[in-house]
Design brief:
two-stranded antiparallel sheet, mainly alpha, 409 residues, 17 helices
């Protein structure tokens, strides 16, 4: 029997495009066949970690993390497939630091804590580009991608991220630069919600439970994150917002009976106020509210509190600072950072001026002598009379600011 041309064509098409299964059982059989074929091909191209012998490995990973390292290499090989390439808004031809940071973050699959080092590097590169005033196109910002990375984390990984000071110090500035300040507040809320019960004393650290240690880390992370937020506020000349943030955080910790003071936050806020001195523009209630939470649990907090009393809007005072400079070996505690040195120098001169206005000659002399001993290179004694008369004063002790030429800058 002779076949018609139509049957030949139909047979040829059925070879190219097999007909769909007509029954559920046939459909299931076809799916199983295709799945087996795909799995076989996948295993050949990307062998699983278990099938690779140790002697075939090109690197020697940390033995304590052998399984996780193998698994990560397996995932990386899968994610490198062209079909899984991420489409980004910035073209690969861009050579700016900001574009490079975004592309690098998108091209590498991040999973929880594995991405910490890469995130730090990308943020550093991105911030360097912003300092060079590079133009960031719409959709080319780094912060939304960081937020997506953070959102996909497990709760345990989020806690590790929020307690990692190095990573936070890079991420927070990027979030503020790209206008996602509200998400940083969500970071702080997450830390506030990670409660592990009341901690009564720091001594519990030595023999505490895992929950208590996590609580300690959470409280320390709160302090560090708040200090980063205060620094961003001060960079935008928003000292009022920074002060309100500090007061609210202190009140919240006080309500939770947490014995830890906000040492880093208070130090950061004090430095911001000392830089502008009398021009802080804080109301009396807010200023006194800040001073209320500067505790004596740390010498730095006590020093900052004493310095800030110089700039009280209503009644500036040098009493506390005078007590501070009488502490033995106080100068050994001061940081050698130029900004910190300048803050100390300026506060001491302001204290001397205030004492002089209040007609406290002894306090003025004490402040000036302390300043000249601490900063000998910044003081220029006025030339003394080479031939003083017998009736002239022999006492050459510095008593007023006019006796020395002090450089403010």
């Amino acid at each position: 029997m002779k076949s018609s041309p139509y049957l030949y064509i139909a047979k040829f098409l059925s070879i190219l495009h097999p007909p769909l299964p007509k029954t559920p059982r046939a459909s299931k059989t076809l799916v199983n066949v295709l799945e087996s074929a795909f799995q076989k091909h996948l295993d050949e191209v990307h062998p699983s970690p278990a099938s690779v012998s140790p002697k075939d490995s090109t690197t020697v990973p940390d033995p304590s993390h052998q399984v996780s390292h193998d698994l990560h290499r397996h995932f990386d090989s899968l994610l490198a497939h062209p079909l899984l390439a991420t489409q980004h808004a910035v073209t690969a031809k861009s050579r700016t630091d900001t574009a490079t940071a975004v592309i690098r973050l998108e091209q590498v699959g991040l999973s929880g804590v594995r991405g910490f080092k890469l995130v730090q590097e990308c943020c550093r590169l991105y911030l360097r580009g912003l300092r060079k005033h590079e133009r960031v196109p719409a959709g080319g910002q780094l912060a939304p991608r960081l937020l997506n990375w953070y959102t996909q984390m497990k709760p345990s990984d989020k806690f590790l991220f929020l307690t990692n000071h190095t990573t936070l110090s890079y991420v927070v500035p990027v979030m503020y630069k790209d206008g996602l300040e509200s998400e940083v507040w969500n970071f702080l809320r997450t830390l506030y919600e990670s409660s592990f019960g009341e901690l009564k004393s720091v001594s519990e650290l030595a023999s505490s439970s895992e929950g208590t240690r996590s609580k300690v880390r959470s409280v320390e992370a709160e302090d560090y994150l708040i200090s980063l937020m205060i620094r961003q506020f001060s960079m935008k000349d928003s000292l009022s917002d920074a002060a309100h943030l500090f007061i609210q955080a202190a009140q919240y910790q006080e309500a939770r009976s947490i014995p830890f003071s906000l040492v880093l936050s208070s130090n950061c806020l004090a430095s911001a106020i000392l830089r502008v001195r009398h021009n802080h523009q804080l109301s009396l209630d807010v200023y006194r509210g800040v001073l209320r939470y500067f505790t004596d649990s740390h010498w730095r907090s006590s020093w900052n509190s004493a310095c800030l009393e110089l700039y009280d809007p209503l009644s500036p005072s040098t009493t506390s600072l005078l007590k501070q400079i009488r502490i033995p070996k106080l100068t050994e505690r001061f940081s050698q950072h130029p900004t910190e040195q300048q803050n100390v120098y300026t506060a001491l001169l302001d204290a001397a001026e205030l004492s002089e206005k209040q007609d406290s000659i002894a306090a003025t002399r004490e402040f000036l002598n302390f300043t000249s001993s601490l900063f000998p290179d910044r003081t220029q004694p006025k030339a003394m009379d080479p031939a003083p008369s017998k009736h002239s004063k022999k006492d050459t002790t510095v008593e007023t600011i006019s006796d020395f030429g002090f450089a403010r800058a």
